[in-house]
Specification:
The chain is an alpha+beta fold. The protein folds into three domains: 3-288, no CATH class; 299-412, no CATH class; 420-478, Arc Repressor Mutant, subunit A (Orthogonal Bundle), CATH 1.10.10.410. It has helices spanning 53-65, 165-182, 222-241, 287-294, 301-310, 316-322, 326-338, 342-360, 371-382, 388-401, 405-412, 420-433, 435-442, 449-459, 466-478; strands at residues 3-14, 69-70, 73-74, 76-80, 90-94, 100-109, 112-125, 129-135, 139-145, 152-158, 194-204, 214-219, 249-254, 259-265, 275-276, 283-284. The strands form four sheets. Strands 2-6-7-10-1-11-12-13-14 form a nine-stranded mixed sheet. A three-stranded antiparallel sheet has the order 5-4-15, with no helix packed on it. The chain has a two-stranded antiparallel sheet with strand order 3-16. It is elongated, with a radius of gyration of 30 Å.
């Protein structure tokens, strides 16, 4: 490798508050343009911002979950720049004294763990958005929608510790999982609730001096982040190979072509003329409040994975899937609380439960098969009332109707046959119907045993006790 990539990410996390960061307007997504505005978010003269307490709480939660220090005193600043969707002509953000600093996340890529530093997490307001339209009557025009103006954001700024697109995606996925677990963000990347800017540069392999970076702006999917970074690495490598110099600029990623294009020259911090916002007093956070918030944090994904593998003895893959979302983890935890056998529960959750939900495009919170129903069915299997194969039929009926498993078994006559006389009769009929295969088996063709088991289960309509079938059939064939 001739060059080494240096990557830092700036992630914008839109917070799940009911109202905006400095006013009482709704943050509801998808409303009519400019219907959720007031003098504060419109930037009208004389309108004063009032800080939303919930935003501060969410910022502290994010900081604690990412191993940050929480500043006892932080300051809001004005970030000055002109854009049509920024009515005040500046954005209220934090600069020199942010609320969270010096954190980290540990990521795993290629089986190796790497620590990625987090420089800062700060609170800020979002801008509005431009809607570009081309109509027959008016031609090409741009419209301004300020519903999003003043929407609360956290900006999570990593250290330039990432060295590949895969590392960047792993870091993003872990951060995304954390903010959703915390309940501070819905994580909807299509709606822009979780989006990222990537700063990418190249330096000669073995060097410690960073190259000139390009900023890739507002990327809203993990796949696009990977594509954008890999393309930008190739683009910069080609420039350097030809003896050119990479220009510091902001670039946009085009998903249709998989390429980046120049948007504007990249501003430095001094270009924004940051200064403390005179309308907002310094924010003071007490140790008691931080401790109170810390005590309400949920068990985070990394802790869940560790608990699943150590306390429950689950494989790493199971722990990864079950902790992939808080709702799935909560469902699993509720199941093992009722039926403390983790591996059978894990198999059913990862298998039939998630399969059925995917087919219906449903979330696990809407699953008709509650933890009580699922574990009730597993107890019937354990007791020998039904077989594992019949359990799938019972599950499908529970999913369709929401009925109790015992009731389904009774109504459909699905009770497992464990009567030795009845099973022996079926086995004798199968062996009598296949004398040639019996001779082949006894001549050493052991693989035919599966054929006989299948025929017996078919003849019993899947109701015969599989363990008894195997034991009795083996004795018959050997005899």
């Amino acid at each position: 490798m001739k060059y080494q990539a240096v990557i830092g990410l700036e992630v914008h996390v839109q917070l799940l508050t009911n109202t905006k960061i400095f006013c009482g307007c709704s943050t509801r997504f998808g409303s009519e343009p400019n219907s959720q505005t007031c003098p504060v978010c419109l930037g009208l003269p004389g309108a004063l911002p009032v800080l939303n307490n919930k935003v501060v709480e969410f910022a502290i939660r994010a900081g604690l979950a990412t191993n940050c220090s929480i500043a006892p005193r932080s300051i809001f600043a004005r970030k000055n720049y002109f854009y049509p969707d920024l009515p005040k002509g500046y954005q209220i953000s934090q600069y020199e004294l942010p609320i969270c600093t010096d954190g980290h996340l540990d990521i795993v890529v290629g089986g190796e763990t790497k620590r990625i530093g987090i420089t800062r997490i700060h609170m800020e307001e979002d801008a509005g958005k431009l809607v570009h339209m081309d109509t027959m009557e008016a031609g090409e025009k741009s419209y301004v929608d300020l519903n999003r103006a003043c929407t609360p954001l956290l900006e999570v700024v990593s250290e330039p510790d990432l060295r590949s697109a895969d590392e960047a995606v792993a870091y993003l996925k872990q951060l995304h999982q954390i903010v959703v677990y915390l309940g501070i963000c819905d994580g909807n990347m299509e709606e822009g609730s979780f989006r990222c800017d990537a700063n990418v540069s190249l330096m000669p392999a073995g060097s410690t001096e960073f190259g000139t970076r390009a900023e890739l702006k507002n990327i809203n999917s993990f796949r696009f982040v990977k594509q954008a970074i890999e393309y930008e690495m190739e683009r910069q490598a080609e420039i350097l190979d030809e003896g050119g110099a990479v220009v510091q600029e902001t670039r946009l990623f085009d998903p249709a072509t998989g390429t980046t294009r120049s948007m504007r020259s990249k501003e430095e911090a001094h270009d924004y003329r940051y200064f403390p916002d005179p309308d907002l007093v310094p924010l003071v956070v007490s140790d008691d409040w931080i401790a109170e918030i810390s005590n309400t944090l949920p068990e985070l994904p990394e802790a869940k994975r560790l608990r699943y593998t150590t306390e429950w003895g689950l494989p790493d893959l199971d722990a990864e899937v079950l902790s992939s979302s808080r709702d799935i983890a909560d469902y699993f935890d509720a199941c093992v609380a009722l039926y403390p056998q983790a591996k059978p529960v894990s198999n059913w959750v990862m298998g039939e439960v998630l399969r059925a939900l995917k087919e219906d495009n449903r979330e696990i919170g809407d699953c008709p098969v509650t933890p009580a129903l699922l574990t009730g069915m597993l107890k019937l299997v354990e007791q020998g009332t039904i077989s594992g194969k019949i359990a799938k039929t019972v599950f499908d009926e529970m999913y369709r109707t929401g009925k109790e498993p015992a009731r389904i078994v009774e109504e459909k006559g699905l009770v497992q046959v464990s009567d030795t006389g009845a099973i022996e009769t079926i086995i004798d009929e199968v062996l009598s119907a296949n004398p040639d295969k019996v001779d082949e088996y006894r001549d050493g063709k052991d693989k035919l045993f599966g054929f006989f088991v299948g025929q017996v289960m078919k003849a019993s309509k899947g109701k015969a006790n599989p363990a008894m079938v195997n034991e009795m059939l083996l004795k018959k064939l050997q005899g």
